[in-house]
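Saturday, quiet lab. Running sequence design on the structure tokens for the scaffold JK sent over.
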């Protein structure tokens, strides 16, 4: 009998340890696979996107600036290679790629770059014909080294507007409403915040209506509180009279006795 009890104790201890171990494993499986799966999924997506082929240049490319933008393009090759905001950009098979170098290191970019909306599809014909929107375009080649060193300063100083409007004769600079709005907002902040305008008549009327409703609500609350007070006072008076009658009754009973 003792041997049987000892065996049961050993088996019970083993079962508890096994159950505890399985519980720990289950918790680990539930908690840790989530980031692993997410990373794996992202890696599979990135790997499935093909990378564009390398472009062989005979030497460092020259660029031209596209009028009315601060985007630069390599004009004398068959594929589109742009430089904008410190990156080289190229479309390929319906996707966009960018790199810090013009001939290698391309990575998939998940959206169309912002500058591309200002680049006309026929820019190559305009470049070959030295024409831009009906005006003479005297474009000049710029070395990639100059662009990489100066693109940020040129954009801040509006360099190409001052250079005969990007080399396009008799063309008026296009107004940049985003910059104008930014200046207005900055001026407003410097003056202590935006100026408050007079509310419209409809907004004023709604405000008056809300104020009237608030006043009526306050009046109703006061009436309710007054009724509650009067009712409580009345109940208190009735209670006091009841207590007085009770005392009189008790004295009458004592006198009888």
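Result came back. Writing it out in full:
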């Amino acid at each position: 009998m003792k041997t049987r009890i000892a065996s049961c104790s050993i088996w019970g201890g083993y079962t508890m340890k096994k159950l505890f171990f399985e519980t720990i494993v289950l918790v680990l499986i539930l908690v840790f696979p989530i980031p692993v799966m997410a990373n794996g999924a992202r890696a599979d997506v990135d790997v499935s996107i093909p990378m564009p082929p390398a472009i062989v240049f005979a030497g460092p490319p020259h660029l031209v600036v596209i009028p009315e933008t601060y985007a630069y393009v390599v004009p004398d090759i068959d594929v589109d290679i742009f430089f904008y905001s410190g990156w080289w950009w190229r479309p390929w098979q319906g996707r966009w790629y960018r790199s810090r170098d013009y001939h290698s290191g391309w990575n998939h970019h998940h959206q169309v770059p912002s500058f591309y909306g200002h680049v006309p599809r026929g820019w190559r014909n305009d470049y070959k014909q030295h024409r831009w929107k009906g005006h003479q375009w005297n474009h000049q080649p710029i070395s990639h080294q100059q662009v990489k060193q100066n693109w940020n300063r040129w954009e801040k100083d509006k360099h190409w507007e001052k250079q005969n409007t990007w080399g396009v004769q008799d063309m008026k600079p296009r107004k940049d409403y985003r910059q104008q709005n930014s200046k207005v907002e900055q001026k407003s902040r410097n003056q202590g915040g935006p100026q408050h305008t007079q509310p419209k008549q409809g907004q004023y009327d709604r405000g008056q209506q809300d104020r009237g409703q608030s006043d009526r609500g306050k009046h109703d609350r006061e009436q309710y509180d007054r009724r509650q007070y009067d009712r409580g006072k009345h109940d208190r008076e009735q209670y006091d009279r009841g207590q007085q009658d009770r005392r009189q009754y008790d004295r009458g009973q004592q006198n009888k006795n």
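Notes for JK: Strands lie at 62-65, 72-73, 82-84, 87-92, 95-99, 107-109, 131-132, 135-136, 142-143. Confidence is low (pLDDT under 50) at residues 1-11, 33-46, 180-185, 191-200. Ask whether to fix the surface positions before the next round.
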